[in-house]
């Protein structure tokens, strides 16, 4: 049987396999043994006994089998996690009832609010219906996601935040089957009618690292990091007025996208032991799979997972998030995941399964500007959210590379890495540092340690004009790559370079916006290039949301400041925007399939910024499908898509047969001649290595009221002929389905080489709805 399982996203961390020595000295590590779907409605106790029996078949005693078991997955997912030697795992994987047995890896990490106000205004409408101010509710629309349950796989939650108040909420929905698990600083009263459930999972984490160090982490659903609190409040936080980040930045009213939705918290990410454990977190697959299994059993409607793999993504069958999400999709639970923060390098996107909505990150129209005046009179606009200010005078200005201590690697001298700066050269000066290696906030800490007056943090060329802001521990500002180069040229050309740094302020209405974040991971899909990823983009740059009060705004151990709300960036921040949109759609259309909700968002996404121009990348280039998928999410447009593309659990199983040859469910054997992966009924079209002609059938479902007639228009990719038949579709009823054929033909007119892609689209229109699907083709 083929193996299977692994996945999670804001940046988390690396991990290697746990070893455990029994008396016979074999190496043991945590394996996930996947058995597919449950074959009948056994009680949980019976399922667990079956799992123990299977494990006992490779152990010396029943006691050893029970001690080796970490998790028994028994709600939807059929399988278990246990300590196994490689030999034991190999024996189990050869058994007929086992689909796969593979190591539980910790190579998963989180991908680290004006954003909602910007989203609704970006659509060119008022803020009603999907409104994000409580006085603007329109009950006939989404009603702010009332009583939809969203499950959050993350680092936990800070329940005392005003964003999680349950004031005015109705009793917990009767269909909820979850629990409120208590523990370290988390009581039963920590749950309420907003946070209706909370659990935590760390058996696989502790199997690798040993017992959790509770001096810097909570052994409970409480969030000691901030990431989980931030994502939870972005999805479903209540409207809270008079809120700002440290220093008063982004002052105003903050709200999640679905403030009346209910939250179910599943804590799966934990600190990596080390000199600064608060900086990096990791999430283990066995723990995440247990959380997804429980979330399915608990009754969530949407799963929001801002976690992803670090490094090369695992195959679908060995990806814990993908496998768990497949079981969620069978029950029409919408699963939304972050794309990752490894851009702008191509082929870096993670969470690649087609039953997952994969979200890239883009900017909003807000900046936190600070004027930098150079000694030669040049004025540069930086960005910052540090509360500290310099006196209104000029300071000596130095490049970090000219102040590095002896022994610093030549390629790192300008990076301001810990203990790399000479206090004798830096004291009292503004220091120009560059991004690249190390953490941004840590660079500011190093300048402060060396006695510097302030930091100017310059982008690397790959970061372009996109400036993520930081609450530095000293005065400072970030600048674009081109402005950093200007400053460096000035330093090198002056015998006495100086600069002054002005007070920062919040500025709204920045144009053009949005643009794609440079850090957002890009396509193509390295596992299956016949599925376009990412699917969509949403705000993820400099997002304000609730924060853990046990974590500083920079997460540095030396930073003792505490905040209730914080500004951070990542696809971890964009993922909950799309999750909230899914919640709102679920509220309006409770019987829609998860694939219909995905389709509604993708086919109504826009390729334009708020000013009507094309979506651009942070480096000034025009964006494309590998940057933003179908485009930028528009929640209100998604509520009336006209037509949707639907795919079932069986369709996904057939896709797995076609893409990987793996049979994921014993009840659905792979056919002898499976369809091609690009024949999955997906809202986008991707064909890899086209050589000649390809014919694809797509099916759409009418979800608009009344009769409708649609006509198709095509934007041909360069060098590709796209023919669609029929050219018109007529619908008489809601729910009616119509199929059409797409024929792609290589005209042979494009110079090609390895990695040559071309893009276009087709759009079905009825005069009211425009149902657009991107087309991406590479040549054979």
From TrEMBL:
Residues 395-486 form the PA domain. One of its GO terms (molecular function) is serine-type endopeptidase activity. One of its GO terms (biological process) is proteolysis. Pfam families: fn3_6 (PF17766), Inhibitor_I9 (PF05922), PA (PF02225), Peptidase_S8 (PF00082). Residues 679-777 form the Subtilisin-like protease fibronectin type-III domain. Gene3D superfamilies: 2.60.40.2310, 3.50.30.30, Peptidase S8 propeptide/proteinase inhibitor I9 (3.30.70.80), Peptidase S8/S53 domain (3.40.50.200). Keywords: Glycoprotein, Hydrolase, Protease, Serine protease, Signal. CDD domains: PA_subtilisin_like, Peptidases_S8_3. Transmembrane segments: none annotated. Residues 1-23 form the signal peptide. The active site is at 154 (charge relay system), 227 (charge relay system), 572 (charge relay system). Residues 30-104 form the Inhibitor I9 domain. Residues 145-610 form the Peptidase S8/S53 domain. Belongs to the peptidase S8 family. PANTHER family: PROPROTEIN CONVERTASE SUBTILISIN/KEXIN. This is Subtilisin-like protease SBT5.6.
């Amino acid at each position: 049987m083929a193996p299977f399982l692994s996945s999670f996203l804001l940046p988390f961390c690396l991990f290697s396999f746990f070893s455990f020595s029994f008396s016979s000295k074999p190496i043991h590590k945590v394996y996930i043994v996947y058995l597919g779907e449950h074959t009948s409605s056994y009680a949980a106790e019976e399922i667990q006994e079956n799992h123990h029996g299977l494990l006992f078949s490779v152990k010396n005693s029943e006691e050893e089998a029970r001690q080796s078991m970490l998790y028994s997955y028994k709600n939807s997912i059929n399988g278990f996690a246990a300590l196994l030697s490689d030999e034991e795992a190999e024996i189990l994987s050869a058994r007929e009832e086992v689909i796969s047995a593979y190591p539980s890896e910790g190579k998963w990490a989180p991908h680290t609010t004006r954003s909602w106000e910007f989203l609704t205004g970006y659509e060119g409408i008022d803020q009603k219906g999907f409104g994000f101010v409580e006085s603007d509710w329109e009950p006939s629309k989404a009603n702010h996601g009332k009583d939809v349950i969203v499950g959050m796989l993350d680092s936990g939650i800070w329940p005392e935040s005003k964003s999680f108040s349950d004031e005015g909420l109705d009793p917990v929905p009767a269909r909820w089957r979850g629990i409120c698990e208590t523990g370290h600083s988390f009581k039963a009263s920590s749950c309420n009618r907003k946070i209706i459930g909370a659990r935590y999972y760390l058996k696989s984490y502790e199997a690798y690292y040993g017992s959790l160090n509770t001096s810097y982490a909570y052994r409970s659903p409480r969030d000691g990091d901030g990431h989980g609190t931030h994502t939870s409040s972005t999805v479903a936080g209540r409207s809270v007025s008079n809120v700002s980040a440290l220093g008063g930045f982004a002052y105003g009213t903050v709200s999640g996208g679905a403030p009346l939705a209910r939250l179910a918290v599943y804590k799966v990410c934990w600190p990596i032991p080390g000199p600064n454990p608060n900086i990096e977190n990791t999430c283990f697959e066995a723990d995440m799979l247990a959380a997804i299994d429980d979330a399915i059993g608990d009754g969530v409607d949407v799963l929001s997972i801002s976690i992803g793999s670090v490094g090369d993504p695992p195959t679908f069958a060995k990806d814990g998030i993908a496998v768990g999400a497949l079981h969620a999709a069978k029950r029409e639970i919408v699963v939304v995941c972050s794309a990752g923060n490894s851009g702008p390098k191509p082929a870096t996107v993670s969470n690649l399964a087609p039953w997952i909505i994969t979200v890239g990150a883009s900017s909003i129209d807000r900046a936190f500007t600070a004027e930098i005046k150079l000694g030669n009179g040049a004025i540069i606009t930086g960005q910052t959210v540090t509360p500290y200010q310099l006196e209104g005078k000029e300071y000596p200005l130095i490049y970090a590379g000219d102040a590095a201590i002896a022994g610093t690697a030549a390629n790192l001298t300008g990076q301001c890495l810990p203990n790399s700066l000479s206090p004798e050269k830096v004291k009292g000066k503004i220091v120009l540092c560059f991004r690249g290696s190390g953490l941004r906030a840590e660079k500011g800490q190093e300048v402060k340690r060396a006695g510097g007056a302030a930091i100017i943090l310059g982008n690397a060329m790959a970061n372009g004009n996109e400036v993520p802001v930081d609450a530095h521990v000293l005065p400072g500002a970030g600048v674009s790559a081109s402005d950093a180069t200007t400053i460096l040229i000035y330093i090198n050309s002056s015998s006495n370079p100086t600069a002054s740094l002005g007070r920062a302020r919040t500025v709204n209405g920045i144009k053009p916006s949005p643009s794609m974040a440079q850090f957002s991971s890009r396509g193509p899909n390295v596992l299956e290039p016949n599925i376009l990823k990412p699917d969509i983009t949403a705000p993820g740059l400099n997002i304000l949301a609730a924060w853990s009060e046990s974590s500083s705004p920079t997460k540095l151990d030396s930073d003792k400041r505490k905040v209730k709300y914080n500004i951070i960036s990542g696809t971890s921040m964009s993922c909950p925007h799309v999750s909230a949109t899914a919640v709102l759609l679920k509220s309006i259309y409770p019987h829609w399939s998860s694939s219909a909700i995905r389709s509604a968002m993708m086919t109504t996404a826009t390729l334009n910024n708020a000013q009507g121009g094309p979506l651009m990348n942070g480096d000034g280039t025009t964006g494309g499908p590998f940057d933003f998928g179908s485009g930028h999410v528009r929640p209100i447009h998604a509520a009336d898509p006209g037509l949707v593309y639907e795919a079932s659990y069986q369709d996904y199983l057939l896709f797995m047969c076609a893409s990987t040859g793996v049979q994921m469910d014993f009840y659905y054997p792979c056919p002898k001649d499976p369809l091609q992966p690009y024949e999955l009924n997906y809202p986008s079209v991707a064909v890899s290595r086209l050589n000649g002609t390809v014919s694809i059938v797509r099916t759409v479902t009418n979800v608009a009221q009344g009769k409708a007639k649609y006509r198709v228009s095509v934007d041909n990719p360069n060098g590709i002929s796209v023919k669609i038949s029929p050219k018109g579709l007529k619908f008489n009823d809601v729910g009616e389905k119509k199929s059409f054929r797409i024929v792609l033909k290589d005209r042979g007119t494009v110079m090609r080489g390895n990695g040559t892609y071309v893009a276009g689209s087709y759009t079905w229109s009825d005069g009211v709805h425009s149902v657009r699907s991107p087309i991406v083709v590479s040549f054979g």
